[in-house]
Amino acid sequence: GPAGFGTPVDLAVDLGGGVVVTDGVAVAVSRDGGDTWTLGGSPGDVLSVAVAPGLVLAGGVGGLMLSEDDGLLWTPLPAFLPEVGEIGIAPGWPADLDLAVASPTQALFLSNDSGGSFLYSPVPLPSSDQSPEVHFDDIEFSTRYGTDGRVAVGAFEGLVLSADEGATWVESDTRPPSLVTGVALSPSYAEDSTLIVTTYDSSTYLSQDGGDTFATMAPGLPTSSSYDGVLVEGPDGRITAILAHLGSVAIAPVGEPWTLWPYVSGTYPTVLAASPAFATDGVVIMGTREDGVLRSADFGHTWAFVGPDRQKISSLAFAPGGDAWAGTASGGVFRSTDGGSSWSGVPVDVAVGPSFVAATADRVWAGTSTGVWASDDGGVSFDRVVAASLPPGPVDQLVTAEDGSVYASIRGSGVYHSADGLTFAQVRSGATPVFEIARSPAFAADGILVVASDSAVERIVDGGTPESIAPDPIRYEEITQAIDAVPGLATPGDPLASAQSYALLEAPDDVLSLNFAGEAVEIWGPTFSDGGTADLTLDGVAVGELTCLGAPASGVNLWSSGLLPPGDHVITVTPRGDGPVGIDAFDVHATFSVGGPGDTDTGPGDTDTEDPDDTDDLPQPDTGGDDGKNCGCAHADPSPLALGLLLALALRRRRSAPRQR
Fold this sequence. Notes:
Blueprint lengths: L9 E4 L5 E4 L4 E4 L7 E2 L5 E8 L2 E7 L1 E5 L7 E2 L9 E4 L9 E5 L2 E6 L7 E2 L15 E6 L3 H4 L2 E5 L2 E5 L7 E3 L6 E7 L3 H4 L2 E6 L3 E4 L7 E2 L11 E6 L5 E7 L2 E6 L5 E4 L6 E6 L3 H4 L2 E5 L4 E4 L7 E4 L5 E6 L5 E5 L4 E4 L7 E2 L10 E4 L4 E5 L2 E5 L7 E2 L10 E6 L5 E5 L3 E5 L6 E4 L7 E4 L3 H4 L1 E6 L2 E6 L5 E2 L5 E4 L5 E3 L11 E2 L4 E3 L6 E6 L2 E8 L5 E6 L2 E7 L5 E8 L7 E8 L5 E3 L1 E5 L28 E2 L20 H16 L6
């Protein structure tokens, strides 16, 4: 950049090699791709800049400013916003005179006369549970905007697209349909073959056959998003699941109803770890995004902050002797010698972040953005692990096993295992980042390793080819990002519902639709003594109706599509207005893979559309195959059509070759 220029706060380019950058006060422009620069005057407090041939725009506190001499002189455009946070210029400038601007919380304002006048075209993004306002942070025109009319608006809360120059908008599902947040295997996996997969925005899934089949555990859970989960032996000897949700922890022996235990509201969880002696000491710790560690010493019933203060926790681990370790998003490492009751920083300068920690009886490991580090003196000092068989690169996950071995996921290279801490062997290849690693407690006998990346879950047996075992079907709750619904749609609470609420459709305008990629879809919801009827269309074609008329119940299978051609589909529910229609969830049967339609997210390291629109969950019935326990381990009795569909999908899945990720 130009000499004497401050730290850049925004930068923009055009197709002809123009570059503009601002440090918040001054603006610098290059017309040769950054080789030489013109340092212009200051248009004020600048938040955003844009550039086109013969034109520079700057927005900030005070509105929108224009320069036609690369920033030497500035002219204010008509004042219509007190603060301009984002600017876009159509790529056909100056033949195409379209501009677009947004304030930090209001979009989009469009001009087709180079800023002489602006038309407001509201972008219909709902706010998140973190703020009552939407926060816009980007505007991009298609490179063929003059012919296709496409413009995209990005926000903290999501991505919205227009294909008609801003006349209408469609929200794009930017997350995978089931973003994996955790994988846990039962301590008795050799006997019970039990594992759980927690996800963001799409339920928690239980398998009791080693991952061959899954069922949702959503009924009774407080939200559709579980941030992490563990399986432990409870004080009564039963295998117990503990799930971190926003505002509460859900706990239940596998196959039993959930009990919710609240913790401090407004705190966002990140990870869970249970004491090696949980069955007797009841200790479990939970990392948070901003507030350090929460600890419970009564089997998860009550929680208290224990430090380290104001730390973003990325990883937690217990050593076999009971010491606890915490890694932070900034690369720090903290140690607790009293089971997580108090914490002290480890004087190690290993990374700029984040840090994943793991511990064996005699060694502490840290996986960071600068590679793998190890300490043999209880964290007093760390040394970088340098081995010819371990490639360099940021670490996306690091775990240890009961036998003292370590597994490290190296970004861009795969997953590596070391039994001695000196030599490493690749156990999973591929550039797709792996964010979760879980090893069977009986690994010496069964050789099972389970890994997950974004929405892919794989089982590796004896170091062989990874086999996809991701949950199917995938559950979409009633107000998840992929579902389009009228604003203000009622979502009554129901303790038996999937995530304890469902969408209530009463008027003909209460239309709800789901865009999905898959081979079948089922609709679940409640029935009422005065229930109504809804018409269904699939890909724009009428396919029948569903009715909610019946004896009052939760979680009824209201409709099943049958087998569909693989690919993208849209199912739309339109109530007739003859009584209440409840939509609890859509279950989509699909080949689960990363990179599917709409999958533009970056995984658990994503800095957020992260947090749940967690008003979003739907009712579920007295589940037919679980003895009325409401565990979610079986659906209500499915229709013969659904049974045939499930059998067809299972056979197809069994016969297909494992997918390489």
